[in-house]
Amino acid sequence: MKIVLQRVLEAEVAVDGRIIGSIDRGFLVFLGVAATDSQAQVHVLADKLTKLRIFADENGKSNLSIGDVGGEILIISQFTLCADTRKGNRPSFIHAAPPQPANALYEYFIKYCQGKFAKVVTGSFGADMKVSLVNDGPYTVILEAE
Fold first, then answer.
1. Residue 6: pLDDT above 90?
2. Cα–Cα distance between 34 and 90 in angstroms, integer?
3. 79 is annotated as an active-site residue
4. Does the pLDDT value for residue 129 go beyond 90?
5. Residue 44: how many CA atoms within 13 Å on its side-chain side?
6. Which among 46, 47, 71, 91 could disulfide-bond with 83, CB atoms 3.0 to 4.6 Å apart, if both were Cys?
7. Of 27, 30, 55, 79, which residue is the catalytic one?
8. Strands 2-15 and 129-144: what pairing?
9. Cα distance between residue 83 and residue 110, in whole Å
């Protein structure tokens, strides 16, 4: 399981020209689910999100967590994070989870996060989504659970 996390001032996701989710200050989370992933990886990564101190304190140091700043979270499923680009010029997605188990873990991740964050919004699994954001920093982090 892999997450590309962006600290944002705002973010939104649209499907078919209609905004289906938006947040203010917080995390934009792109979640890639591999075929070998399980609920254990969900717990590791979601717990890490709650504790990650990447928001500035009164001294400008990255000492505050998303909970400390009342941040929100937007979760987007992105199977392309599981791409293997080591050979050739066309990515292979052989390591990505098939749609049904990937969606089940994506939904589990959402439910688990809803118990940890004040506001959790999502994209639409498998949809052609348009994601807009204002990256704060920019600050982008990659989190992985093996």
1. yes
2. 18
3. yes
4. yes
5. 12
6. 91
7. 79
8. antiparallel
9. 22
- Of how many residues is the chain composed? 146
Q: Tokens representing 133?
A: 């954001």
State how beta strands 120-122 and 72-77 pair: parallel
Catalytic: 80?
A: yes
Beta carbons of 28 and 5 less than 8 angstroms apart: yes
pLDDT band at 77 (very low <50, low <70, confident <90, very high): very high
Does the pLDDT of residue 119 top 80, yes or no?
yes
Domains within the chain, CATH numbers bracketed: 2-132 (3.50.80.10)
Q: Is the dihedral of CA 110, 111, 113, 114 positive or negative?
A: positive
How does pLDDT run across 12-67, given as a tens digit for each residue?
Answer: 999 999 999 999 999 999 999 999 999 999 999 999 999 999 999 999 999 999 99
Residues 74, 56: Cα–Cα separation, whole Å: 20
Q: Which of 36, 39, 50, 80 is catalytic?
A: 80
27 carries an active-site annotation? no
| Angle in degrees, CA 106, 108, 111, rounded to 5 | 115
Of 41, 78, 117, 122, catalytic:
78
